[in-house]
Amino acid sequence: SLIDWHCAPFLPFFNSCYFPLDVVEEEDLPSPIPLSGGALWSFRGGCSFSPAACLSVSFPRFCIADMDIIPGPGLFPAHRCKTIHVVRHAQGVHNVEGDKNYKAYLSPEYFDAELTPLGWQQVDNLRKHVVASGLLERVDLVITSPLMRTLQTAVGVFGGGSYTDRVDGLPLMVANAGNSGRGAISSFNSPPIIAAELCREHFGVHPCDQRRSISDYQFLFPAIDFSLIETDEDTVWKADVRETTEELAARGLKFLKWLWTRTEKEIAIVTHSGFLFHTLNAFGSDCHPLVKKEICKRFSNCELRSMVIVDRG
């Protein structure tokens, strides 16, 4: 095989990031990091949340191809590259208490946690961004984790408008799914959305990370494709066994390997903080340390980052 996973064949390159910001200072804008033969760009500054503001930052696609040679621009044939737009789900009810006290994640009250009202505001603002930037028209496929908060985020950001029975076919989401208080969401002019177990959050112990039956989801999200999921009930979540970070990272690499087999060239992925952190930490060791930091830093709720994955053969 041309793919040797021990040599990290998929190298993420940052293309753009969506940050919800209160204020954008001049010193927060991208600045070049001089390197022999090229430049790396880094986004400096924090990203405090504001539902009303956002910033889209573009990064040239430069990376260190080999730490044993002088760093410079990387050049790859287009057919060996695939653009991914990675989104962490919007704020869930479990995040509100869990951010204050980690033990709250153990509460059965947060089983398959849904979005908060603030989470839906985050979804609305990210949707405005993907529409205004033209990203929604470019995305060929959306892949989502099959949990309530990611399904709601996926259809809210990448779905159609309000659902009309006679025109739109099946809705992506029925009215008030997951106590959303929202009307039904249309699948009209939406990219296909499929659910995949491989990009779920840590398996086990935390009830918020346990999914309900696929039959339930199919009723609530009729136009989402759940055919890749093999079992109706959640057989991978165990009440007393938490997936290790090593197992999660291995699952993340398996997901990216599967992603590479897809024919679509521009794919959006809606997933979870832990999954992203441990998966992306496997990459960037052959890049400038600041690029590694950009790749691996934790996602905020409803943050979008765009990257390119490359088959280096």
TrEMBL record:
SMART domains named among the record's database cross-references: PGAM (SM00855)
Q: Which stretches are annotated as coiled coil?
A: none
- Which SUPFAM superfamilies does the record associate with it? Phosphoglycerate mutase-like
- Where does the source fall among the domains of life? Eukaryota
GO CC term, one of those recorded:
cytoplasm
Q: Which GO terms describe its molecular function?
A: phosphatase activity
The record's family statement is: Belongs to the phosphoglycerate mutase family.
What is this protein for, i.e. what is its function?
May play a role in carbohydrates metabolism.
Annotated protein name in UniProt: Phosphoglycerate mutase-like protein 1
Please tell me the species this chain comes from.
Answer: Linum tenue
Q: What phylogenetic lineage does the species belong to?
A: Eukaryota, Viridiplantae, Streptophyta, Embryophyta, Tracheophyta
